[in-house]
Amino acid sequence: MSTPVIEEVTLAERAYRIRRNALLMGEVQGQGYIGQALDIADVLAVAYFGAMNYRPEDPEWEGRDRFLLSNGHYAIALYAALFEAGILPQEELETYGSDDSRLPMSGMASYTPGMEMSGGSLGQGLTIAVGRGLGLKRKGSKSFVYTLFSDGELDEGSIWEGLMSAAHWKLDNLIAMVDVNNQQADGPSTQIMSFEPLVDKLEAFGWYVQRVDGNDIDAVKTAFDNARTLKEAKPRIIVCDTKMGCGVPFLEQREKNHFIRVDAHEWQLALEALKAGRQA
Ligand SMILES: Cc1ncc(C[n+]2csc(CCOP(=O)(O)OP(=O)(O)O)c2C)c(N)n1
Ligand SMILES: [Mg+2]
């Protein structure tokens, strides 16, 4: 009897495949929030392949860790991870953003397996995560609630209410990630609304805070490990400094990259550039 071969896939390879899935979806529409999907791929790779507990064949399994995408326009990034995780079937990729697709351009919980909340109106995810975290704790659940929000969402008062209430409720089952790509719809985030010194502010709100290069997958993995294993009764947040378009040099350099249009012939170039930088 032969021993089954179990595929060992590195986190770097997972991140590569997440970026590739995002580019393939982008190509379907010719445009989208591609820069963000490329910048957050390493964080999603660690979340889905180095941290979270879930059953791909049963996305609503009660014992799962929850992932709440606050910034609904990052749906393309989350779908890319859900394909890689086997929660979404790969053949649906080409339906991205089409009529009757389960993959609308902004995340919708009722449409998509693995999408835990509906997005669109920014600044909501953290407070929803606080409610979920509190509910799970009261039920005696051991599940974690992860939530991703973006630096532009720091402009929203509801984020700061969420930060305050999570600490009040001592939510040690809550792990937030903020994507600091220094970009929002109207320009560089720090020019629109200053939020530094962010680590000091978050610590003052009672959180366990780590700040990492969000495109350094080993650093991200260590931060997730620390966040999961900390023994203090505090919510945890990982500030992830990321680079828009990461992995595709000509997209990294694009200006006004909040929502980009990519010429038809450039998708192939983007996939090739991504492949050229692929790490084992
Ligand atoms: C409450 C609310 N206000 C405004 C918008 C419009 N909007 C959509 S994306 C976006 C930028 C948010 O910042 P961020 O997510 O950091 O931008 P990115 O990094 O994706 O460029 C804005 C203002 C919205 N969706 N919801
Ligand atoms: Mg941003």
TrEMBL record:
Residues passing through the membrane, by range: none
SUPFAM superfamilies for this protein: Thiamin diphosphate-binding fold (THDP-binding)
Keywords, sorted A to Z: Thiamine pyrophosphate
Chain ranges of the Transketolase N-terminal domain: 28-266
Species annotation: Caballeronia pedi
Cofactor(s) annotated in UniProt: thiamine diphosphate
Lineage: Bacteria, Pseudomonadati, Pseudomonadota, Betaproteobacteria, Burkholderiales
UniProt entry tagged with the keyword Transmembrane: no
Keyword Kinase: no
Highest taxon above the source species: Bacteria
UniProt-listed PANTHER family: TRANSKETOLASE N-TERMINAL SECTION-RELATED
Protein family according to the UniProt entry: Belongs to the transketolase family.
Protein name (database record): Transketolase domain-containing protein
